[in-house]
Amino acid sequence: MTRYARRYSFAAPSDRSKSPPPPYSTRPPSIYSRLNEQTPLIVHVKRSEPASYQPYWPISECLLILLIISICVTVFFFLYRTLSGYVPTIPVLPRTYSVAIVGAGPAGISALQHLYLESRNRNIHLNITLFEASPLIGGQLALNDSTGGPVFPYNDPEQAPITAEDITGTALVWSNPLFTKSSEEILGDKLAFSERPSQEVSYVFGSDIVSQNSRPYNKMSFFRWMGLIFHYGSSVWQAGALVDQGTNIRFVDAPLTTDIMQLMINQDIVEPVQEFAQAGLDSRGIGGAYETEILGPQVERVHSQGIPNINTLAMMLAAAQEDYANAYVGGELIDRLEQIVAATGVTVRTATEVTGIKHEQINDHESAWLVQHGASGSPGLGAEPFHRVILAAPNFDLYRASSIDDVEAASGLTYHPTYVTFFTLPQRLGEFGDVDQILFHEASGRYHAFREVRELAFVREVIRVVDGHTVVEHLYRALSDNGVPQEIQDSIGVTWLHQVRLENAHPDLFPYRYFPPFRLSEKGLWWTSAIHAIASTVDMSWLAGKIVAEDVLKGL
Q: Which end of the chain is more exposed for a tag (fewer CB within 10 A), N or C?
């Protein structure tokens, strides 16, 4: 058999064959060196080191390593982008639009709230300015005295001030659920309402009390209800159904559309808006003495217009409003409007009258609406440019002063003024019975001293200090066409009086076939009063403000 040997090796006798074998040992052979005859007798044994284990790194060292890695990665990407021609771009800030709202009533503040909340949700930057000619916000229902502050009985700040609820009734906020819901949304609270006792009402024709009953209708006693049935017939319960229909008309879920016809279709009110009230009464079987003696004075108190001149919807709302005017109490309209404005933090200019609006070119590249304004009662005027303008007040002189093409649409709405008078008496007014409200028929002025007075109503008791002694007196409200004459004041013993004329208190509510638009100019001018072609309530004004504000946002 062929033997294989390592290359370049030579056969030679082995030294190991001449050496004795190593002594027996329990140690492994690997610890010995190769021995031969020349190996010293003392052998140096190399002991193996015990196995060692690397401990875990501390957390601080791990974090330091991660930080170093992060810095390296960041530097790498920075150098990569720089060397590869990458140029970082500066983010462009969104444009800020300036919006002027003229009028700090329910419509104007509704537009303000909607713009404020929705612009944040949609990342739209707005600079909003709210103008109000009155020293107080709240619209026509916010009465103010000669000093610009609230009106106090006897001009005594220790008294409770006259509120919007003193004008309309304590159920003002309760009867406008859209406003209630919207105010709760931004203020983050929950209003509570309480029921009040029923009230006695006298209906006067000439100098005679033709009827006396109680409100609300659903709290009327059975015997009184039967007495009305005996006197007026089926018109009584048909009128009760009319009140329910008016109460159930709510605009909480109304669409924010600028098409008024579409809005009416959605709310199922097209027919009552376009129908004369008399036709609506005839179709419901309401008429005769009930229409003349009870329903007629109720409508005149609310709208300062008779049944023949209004639409069916206005009549339904008037009947409902008179029925529950003081049925509930809770919340104050002006107080909540002030809180809403404060929550938005926008610029508010009270006692500032806007006298004109004109669209002009302000530089080579931009045009804007110039809003001319000045302090109420002061001759000095100034002007500011705005991208968008919302008119939330029925100021027709303002429209004529501006270059608006659609002036006919604005001037199509007309309004009735009314006088609101508050006065105190040392005793209850008992000439027409010990009642809470007296409603006069429109023809009664020919026969009685209370000519042109539509309503006398007890508001509340007040405490007056006379010669250091407290005296209980009675605060009353009167609604009329020309105020309370001096002879009436003298005859009933008035001890204090405050009287104000509301120029645009009630819009004419005859049946409309053509409805004015909310947008007066495609260049960015809107108004909220277009809603008054349908009806006039706090909720309707609030809805108009939201509709206009939504249309403004869509254009941005």
A: N
Q: Is the pLDDT of residue 82 over 70?
A: no
pLDDT > 50? residue 31: no
Task: Map tokens 């503040």 to a residue.
Answer: 109
Quick check: do 99-146+334-414+512-554 and 197-257+270-325+415-507 share a fold? no
Structure token pair of residue 398:
């303002």
Q: Please give the torsion angle defined by the CA atoms of residues 523, 528, 534 and 537, in that order, rounded to the nearest 10 degrees.
A: 170
Q: 512 pLDDT exceeds 60?
A: yes
Greater confidence, 266 or 407?
266
d(CA 499, CA 477): 10
Closest CA to 146 of 132, 158, 136, 160: 136
pLDDT at position 293 over 50: yes
Q: Report yes or no: 480 and 454 within 8 Å, Cβ to Cβ.
A: yes
Cis peptide, bond prior to residue 216, ω within 30 of zero? yes
Residue 203's DSSP bridge partners are 211, 439
Instruction: For the domain made up of 197-257+270-325+415-507, give the CATH fold.
Output: Polyamine Oxidase; Chain A, domain 2 (3.90.660)
Angle, in degrees to the nearest 10, between helices 538-554 and 177-187 = 60
Tell whether omega for the bond before 485 is within 30 degrees of 0, i.e. cis. no
Return the number of other C-beta atoms located less than 10 Å from residue 144's C-beta. 18
- Strands annotated E in 492-534: 496-507, 519-521, 525-527
The pLDDT, as a whole number, for residue 445 is 55
Residue 372 has phi, psi (to 5 degrees) of: -90, 130
CA distance 340 to 115: 12
Cα–Cα distance, 38 to 20 (Å, whole number): 13
Concatenate the DSSP letters of all residues of 474-493 into one string: EEEEEEESS---HHHHHHHT
Nearest-CA neighbor of 251 among 545, 517, 509? 545
**What residue ranges do the domains of the chain occupy?**
99-146+334-414+512-554, 197-257+270-325+415-507
Q: Which uninterrupted H or E stretch holds 125? A: strand 125-131
Rounded to whole angstroms, how far apart are CA atoms 55 and 249?
79
Work out the angle between the directed axes of helices 296-303 and 312-324 (0-180°, nearest 10). Answer: 90
Could you write out the DSSP letters of every residue in 194-241? EE---EEEEEEETTEEEEEEEESGGG--HHHHHHHHHHHTTHHHHHHH
Q: For 99-146+334-414+512-554, CATH number?
A: 3.50.50.60
Closest CA to 496 of 161, 162, 166, 154: 154
Q: Write down the pTM of the prediction.
A: 0.81
Average pLDDT over the chain, rounded to an integer: 85
Residue located via tokens 């159920």: 171
What angle (nearest 5°) sits at the alpha carbon of residue 302, between those of residues 299 and 306?
35
Least confident stretch, 42-51, 121-130, 257-266, 330-339? 42-51
Q: Which of 354, 332, 329, 331 is nearest to 104 (CA)?
A: 354
C-alpha span between 217 and 237 (Å, rounded): 9
